[in-house]
Design goal:
CATH topology of the largest domain: Tetracycline Repressor, domain 2
Radius of gyration: 19 Å
CATH class of the largest domain: Mainly Alpha
Largest sheet: none
Order of helices and strands: HHHHHHHHH
CATH architecture of the largest domain: Orthogonal Bundle
Number of domains: 2
Helix content: over 70%
């Protein structure tokens, strides 16, 4: 991906405005139905400004992937410490509350991009896979700490448990989006939490 780092505060603000507009449009309409003209109009920039920071649509979409991953992770402040059962439970509760606040729309932004790009854009697939890795990592680290503290069985595999939990989140989000019902995510996360607790020491 071509990255042009603006040298001025105004330049950084312009690039950020373009990227913000593109990220919002892609979330609302999808990649295929978002054009560079749409982004330019939404960001209120000229073609010259847009192409100064992004070589083409593919370049812009790769930046949108990075921004989307950042937004998804930033919306989960409890990821900073998942080293107790209480912390994990509250994190899962927050995910459900977020879907309640969003009225069960939108699904998972990372998963949505994966569905659109993973089979056609290898760089995008790799970036999205890395995003899921970043989402799993705090839980894996938290479970490793719990295992070292004797709160998790010594034979438990934190990496596998983190992947299983993320899979439950993704499945729950798909059902929540399609059924417009946050309780679908609640069911999935209750099952995931019960599975994690089955490995408690």
């Amino acid at each position: 991906m071509t990255v042009v780092e603006p040298r001025t505060t105004k330049g950084r603000a312009t690039r950020d405005r373009v990227l913000g507009a593109a990220t919002a449009l892609v979330f609302e309409r999808g990649v295929a139905d978002t054009t560079l003209d749409d982004v330019r109009a939404a960001a209120k920039v000229s073609k010259g400004q847009l192409y100064h920071y992004f070589a083409d649509k593919e370049d812009l979409i790769h930046a949108v992937i990075d921004r989307t991953i950042q937004q998804v992770l930033a919306a989960q402040p409890r990821l900073t410490d998942l080293s107790s059962w209480t912390a994990i439970s509250r994190w899962l509760d927050d995910l459900v509350e977020l879907q309640v606040a969003r009225q069960a729309t939108g699904g998972c932004p990372i998963g949505g991009l994966a569905g659109q790009l993973a089979e056609t854009d290898e760089l995008a697939r790799q970036a999205l896979a890395a995003g899921f890795d970043r989402w799993e990592e705090p839980l894996r680290i938290g479970l490793e700490k719990m295992r070292s503290q004797g709160k998790l069985q010594r034979g438990a595999d934190p990496a596998r448990l983190a992947t299983a939990t993320l899979a439950a989140i993704q499945g729950g989000l798909v059902l929540t989006q399609t059924r417009r019902d946050p309780r679908q995510l609640r069911v999935a996360l209750d099952a995931a939490y019960a599975y994690l607790r089955s490995f408690a020491a």
